[in-house]
Amino acid sequence: MSMKRMTRDEVFNRLESGMSLAGLNLEEVDLSRANLSGVDCSGANFHRARLTGANLAGARLCKANLRRCELVGADLSGADLSDADLRNSFFNDCNLSGARLERADVRFAKFTGARLEGASFAGAVYDQMTRFDPDQVRVFSAMVKKGPEGVFIKK
Fold it and tell me: How confident is the model over 88-132, as pLDDT tens digits?
């Protein structure tokens, strides 16, 4: 049985009431430019959601499904994306500084133009289609060669 998909208005009503978004079905919801800073979204389903320019700084997104999301220009600094499904998502021009992407599935994800200083990719699952800028690739590749535990991108 699938959970009822929430609307944009329902999401904002929950946020205004100080409620979390943990475990909710937010599939295909347009949350562009929404302020989700510090919000608990763990285990939420954001499949194909639009989060362009959203503020997710410090948000808890562990075990969330962000597959095929558009997060272009979003602020995910300090966000916890550990164990999240990020496949086929667009993180172009995002701020992921200090974000935790430990054990996240980043296959086919695009990180071009993203700020990754201090981001942790320990144990992340990636493939040849995971896209980074050339300078990010050098750092990412150097860290990957150190072992299967994943990577930690330094400034």
Answer: 999 999 999 999 999 999 999 999 999 988 888 888 888 888 888
Determine the Cα–Cα distance for residues 117 and 128; give it in Å rounded to an integer. 22
Q: Model confidence over 31-89: pLDDT tens digits?
A: 999 999 999 999 999 999 999 999 999 999 999 999 999 999 999 999 999 999 999 99
- The domains located in the chain, with CATH, are 1-155 (2.160.20.80)
Give the bridge partners for 25, in sequence order. 45
Nearest to 77 by CA among 34, 20, 115: 115
Residues with Cβ within 8 Å of 116's Cβ and at least 6 positions away in sequence, in order, are: 96, 97, 99, 136, 153
Residue matched to tokens 């989700």: 36
Q: What is the pTM of this model?
A: 0.86
Going from the C-alpha of 141 to that of each of 34, 64, 119, 125, the distances in angstroms are 34, 26, 15, 13
d(CA 28, CA 67): 11
